C-alpha cells in the first residue's frame, strides 16, 4: 500500500489530531524531534500541516541529576522513564529518543516502533587549551600527562584509561553546550562527546580528535534516533514502521541484543558497534571492560544481517563468559 494511503487512515479512523510527540527539552533532543517530524511529513502529505503535531517537552530524571555518573543514579533508563510514563498515561502518542539512552528492555506496553538513519556513530574528544596538536596516528597523544578528562560514561573512561593509565577522569554532565563550556572554562583538560550530537548541533568543529570505532568502541545505538509508542497503538506502529531505516534497524538490533546479553550491572563498561559491509554482511564489535581500564576485552563477529539479533546475543554471551565474573555481579 502506498505510504500516503497508510497515513491517510489516521484521520479517517477518527484519531484526533494533533498527534502529540514527547521529547526531552535539550537542544539536541528538540533537533532530533524536528528531524523526525520532517521525515514523517515528507512521507505523509496528510500530516503536512501546522496542526498535525504538538511537541510536549518532558523533563527526565537524567536531565535533573547533573552531578553524578549515570551508573550511580540508575543508568540509561533515567532519560526515558518519565517519557514512558507520559506514553502510558496517554499524555503523548509517540516519543523521540537517542537510542543509546533507551534501555534494552522497555516497560510493558511500550514498543520501539522505528529507528532513523544513523548519524556518525563515533566518539570525539573536545580539547581544552592545554592540549597538544592532534596526531591522527596517536589519537590520545595530544592529552597532557596526568590530565583530568571530563566524562560521566564508564565506557569512555575504561577505554581511555586502558590506553592512557596516567590520565584521570572526572564527572561532567549536562547537555552538549554545557559540557563544551566547562572544557572551555578549563575545568577539564578535555572531554568526550558523541560526534553525532556535535554534527546535529552544527558544532562539528569542536571535535578536536575523532576516534574511530576500533580505538573507542561506541555505545550501542549511538547516533541513532529511535521512536517509541504504545504497543497497543497498531495504527501508529504501522505508520512509524513505514519510515524505518533498514540499515539502522539491522545494526541497532545487533547492538541492542549484545547489550541485553551483557547487561549485568549498569556500572559495567560496555561498547557495541555494528556496521553493514559492502557485501551486505553485518560486522559487530563488542567490548567489556573494568571502569579503571585494567581489564578490557574486545571481540568482533561477521554474519548475515538477517541474523543481527542472534549475532549480538551470541557475541554478548561470549564476552560475558570470557570476562571476570565480578564484572556482572
Ligand atoms: N547520553 C547523552 C547523549 N545521548 C545521545 C547523545 C548524542 C547523540 C547520539 O549518540 O545519538 C548524547 C551526548 C553524548 O554522548 O555526547
Automatic annotation (TrEMBL):
Domain Porphobilinogen deaminase N-terminal, chain residue ranges per copy: 19-237
Cofactor(s) of this protein: dipyrromethane
Cofactor binding annotation: Binds 1 dipyrromethane group covalently.
Record-level GO cellular component terms: cytoplasm
Porphobilinogen deaminase C-terminal domain boundaries: 252-320
Gene Ontology annotations of biological process type: protoporphyrinogen IX biosynthetic process
Entry annotated with the keyword Transferase: yes
UniProt-listed PROSITE patterns: PORPHOBILINOGEN_DEAM
Protein name: Porphobilinogen deaminase
